[in-house]
Amino acid sequence: MSTATAPLSRKSAPVARMAPERDLFSYPKYWAECFGPAPFLPMSRAEMDKLGWDSCDVILVVGDAYVDHPSFGMAVVGRMLEAQGYRVGLICQPDWHSKDDFMRLGKPNLFFGVSAGNMDSMINRYTADKKLRHDDAYTPGDIGGKRPDRAVTVYTQRCKEAYKEVPVIIGGIEASLRRIAHYDYWSEKVRRSVIFDAKADILIYGNAERPLVEVAHRIASGIPVSEIQDVRGTAVIRKEPLPGWRGVDSTAIDKVGKIDPIPNPYGADDVGCSSYSEFAKAGIDLTKPAEVEAKPIMVQAPRQKPWEQTYVKLPAFEQVSVNKPLYAHASRILHQETNPGCARAIMQRHGDRHIWVNPPAFPLSTAEMDLVFGLPYQRVPHPVYGKAKIPAYEMIKTSVNIMRGCFGGCSFCSITEHEGRIIQSRSKESIMQEIKDIRDKVPGFTGVISDLGGPTANMYRLNCKNPKAEQTCRRPSCVYPTICEHMDTDQSPTVELYREARNLPGIKKVLVASGVRYDLAVEDPNYVKELVQHHVGGYLKIAPEHTEEGPLSKMMKPGMGAYDKFKEMFDRFSKEAGKEQYLIPYFIASHPGTTDLDMINLALWLKARDFRLDQVQNFYPSPMANATTIYHTEMNSLKNINKANTEVVPVPKGERQRRLHKAILRYHDPKGWPIIREALIRLKMQHLIGRGKDCLVPPETKDEQQQRPQRGGKPALTRHTGLNPAAQATARSKHSTANGKANGKAKAEQAASKPASQAPVKGKPAAKGKPVVKGKPAAKTGRAGS
Predict the structure, then answer these.
(1) Domains, the chain, ordered by start
(2) Is Calcium one of the keywords UniProt gives this record (predicted)?
(3) What are the pLDDT digits (tens) for 766-786?
(4) Which of 12, 76, 409, 425 is the most exposed, having the fewest neighbouring CB atoms within 10 Å of its CB?
């Protein structure tokens, strides 16, 4: 084991141990005489005066409009701090051009809390093609431009200008996904950890409740913010490691940070949880009860786990910013240190200082989740917005979040990096109470619950069946490439929840609008039957994302076999219920690992099934996602990075190729036909140009020929054929006549010469009357591919 030398010897240095975890609501309240919950957290001095406040203890600065609802981060954090006895004020969507708007509530007694909002500000403001958006679902009236680029950095700097001595704590998804050096898609370079650019005092990553409450009480007790360095779920700037911690040097790709007695997690891929654990190495079968040998009772000090008081030293910012293999290596290590049970701290040098990332906070218990969701939310926007509509609120005002986290581990998704893999579920009683609150409090409620779900609809109360294996697991996904043997797949608690929810008085319908993990659903046909027959409003969205093995393997998504099995169940149970219902499959264009041929095969699969995607989104490289690392480095960081056999991944880059992939996915749109034809000619797949049912796009029309740009007053020669338009027309006429005979032969020869995974997929056209399939809207939750 290669060890980095600590600045002080262990004999002379005090050991900085991790702060102990305690119940979220076990702290004594900050104010002995509690002010009680405010109707709405105040946004103005006038509201503070009505509450009898002379000042705020904590002021939250947020990029979203204030909606007092548990689906909005600022409401959850604000109400939680309020429950701890703090007076909390909100500054929402401030004018960032000066410090004035950041002083509207006066100076906070303890600290500023800064977040860009529910959504990353750059994803909120720009499309996947880097075009400026003119709307914002988190703003009244859906008006764009109410928050700056890189809002966390801008807001923090203004807070420091307003009150230099007041600590600033940053959090939310924008800060969470930028906690170390990261590739920035919009500037196309690697940027420093956001805490350096923002000049914040502490960064909180992931769900903030537990670390934020601990930090707040420490600051309230008089501890300087500069001394709060050891709280789980936080990152801070340091000159050196915490005293007494041992370091593991992983600053080069041949230094992978092995810690005995755990097998090196970076050399093993796609193996079961127990393969990563110290128990497996010792030959212990966790599935059988241990044989206990009677021995005299001896009192011993608790044995330190090999990951405790240990940090991993990553390659420095100056290295990863110019060296792609090192960047991929650093990303791989970071994603292996996400399990709170066995994660090590991470340290990365930026110049003469380091970012120190403490291990993740432990997930909330069911009792804690119930208390968080049971806080006194008004469930409506703040009255200051009047009758202006806030689209994000309109979409979720009658939805219920039943859990957090996702163990799917999809490489393009940011949920794992932010919420973690461990599922945190609410109790059935808590969920029923929220449905009743919606029924009784939400204006205009029609009796329909729009969604009963979460990051994934069917992971409620699913966890690892072996707690010891779960504690030491470093597997990035519990369901890829296969479902882990330790994973519980019994979805009967979700079925029971659905039944009780729809039987509540005043509830007419309970829909499930969250995405269903169909490879997990097929493990429990009873769940699929309950879902299909009672909780689908005509359409159910699922996300195969692609049909081809190349991109699917880089997405960490299952093959189409699971989709076919789920569709068979869906159709059968719909027919049994006498309902005409449809699956809405979502797909990603331009994902790393995708070739032009992969996209053509996907389009042929869609056409054979009469799917016409309306809205299509190109892959969006969000910071810190595994797929973003592959996009930047063109290396498969899902596997071990080394100098000998690192896999090179094809990555669609550049406006032209990304536009092509998006056009192929919308093969039915005439606007994309010219660029698709060029690609088919280049790939020697001209047989797919024609009017036959097996063709992808029709031949060029005379109008298209006339509209094609001319050069020097003469018909333009095409890039790939060398023929002028007249000659092309003659050739197409001959081709069209022979198309029916030659097409089948050419396709058969092509399919025979390629691997099965690349052969165009054939299928039967769907029944008449099948609706146009709506594609994914622009990303709203940090999901990179959505």
Answers:
(1) 33-235 (3.40.50.2300), 398-535 (3.30.750.210), 540-703 (3.30.750.200)
(2) no
(3) 433 444 444 433 333 333 333
(4) 12
